[in-house]
Structure formats: C-alpha cells, structure tokens
Write the structure tokens for this entry.
Amino acid sequence: MKLKLIFPYPAWKEVSEKYFITIHRNKIHNYIGLHPLKKSIGFSEQEESEKFINSFYKIYKLDKLDRKELNTKATHEIVSQELHNAVQGHKYCLKLNWFQEFYINWFHKKYIIQSLDFKKSILTGFAGAIIGALVTLAFQTNQKTQNETNIPIKKEIKNQNEQKPIIKLTEFQDGRWISTTDSLSGIEIKNGKWMMFYKGTETDSTYIYDFKIKREYIKELGTEHKPFEFLTIMNKSDTLDYSILEYSNELLSLSYIPRGNTLNYKPEK
C-alpha cells in the first residue's frame, strides 16, 4: 500500500509533497523521495530516489490539538527509527482514510477480536453450546423412548392388528405320515388329496378327502394378534376340522376341534 508522507511545521513547507512510503502489513518497505530532506553539516549531499527500508513502524492518531500544534491536516503520526535514519526528518505524518486506518490497525492486532483471550472465550462458548445441544438431544431421545414404552397394551395390540405381517399359509407336501400312538395308522398327502390309511387294509373312498387351509385371529383367547391355521378335510360323506399345531420335516401335529385331542404324526421311513 502506497501512502503519502506529510511533513508538519512551517520549517518544512519548502519540502516537496511528492514523497511516499510503501507499507505491507506491519512493515515499511520503501521510502520514495528526497533524502536527507535538509542539507546539514553531516549530510551535504541530497538524493531523490527510492530507498529500501524494510522496518517495523507504529502509528498514533492525532487529535484536534495535535493537528493545531503541528499545523497539519494529517490524521496520524508514523514512527519508525529506520525511516528517521534514512530521511533525517523531524516528524512524519499521514492522512489516512478509514480503509487505510483499518488495514494498519488490523496488522498491528489492535482489535479485540484478534486477541487470544477473545478467541479462547469464543471457543469456550462454542464448545459449551455443542455440549448443551448434545445433552438436550440425549434427554429428548430418552423421553421419546419412555413415551413409546408406555403405550397401552390394547393400543399396541391394535397397532399390530393394523400392521399384520404377511405370512404364507402352510403348504402340505406329498408324503406319508405315521401316527405316534399307532404305528399301523397314518395319513398320506398326495396330488392334493388327504387320505387316511391303516396298514394291511385297502383304503376306502370314504377315507379320501379334499382339504383346504385357512387362517383366523381369535379374540376370545386373547390372541387376536397371533394367527391360527385351520385344516378342513371334506368328501361327500364327511367334513372334519382340525387346527394345525405344527408342521415340519419331523412332525405333523393336529388338534381335532370337536374333541380337542391332539394327533401327532412322524414321517414314514
């Protein structure tokens, strides 16, 4: 940044106004103009050129009394020993606009937001806000979990009824099953037919049935949220109803509904 130097006091009026300094951040890089400013016993030769300085500097704001005493319209005094040694002047002043003043003050760290204590307080406040937010979130999550746990049982059952999972009906595979209580008695499932047989005798047509499976929810048993499967076998002469208790590779268990007795079968080997 290039700034014009102002030399106060009437004694310096004859000095040219075309003298400048260039600054970068908090250092003076160059002085441009006549040096030394005045001839003296020690400095009889004057030279007008650009002189490299590369030194730190400070500025001081001038109030009304300062400007009146110095007879200048400058706003700030700039102080640098290296500049003084190079130019041999008495006082050096600057007339700064708001941006130039802000630029210089910023790189001299004169603003409170640049202080270490201020940065620490900001970080502390930010960390506190994050911790507070996490605690609040954890509390709200805990409250939500408790509220969900306290849903009445009837409402929970209703919700389950409204969202019953789709479970595929039991499908009987072809095969022969032997009663666990009578090794000669059994049933055979073949080609969509249900046949009751007794080893050593022929199976009469009255023991060959069609069959179907259905699913129901029984409220009276307090199990409306659990499905029951029922087996119905029928032919021209009879219709029999069972509930299916279990069907697996190792066991077929039925409950004969009219009497409530359980019939267990194992696969024929």
Remarks:
- The chain has a mean pLDDT of 82.
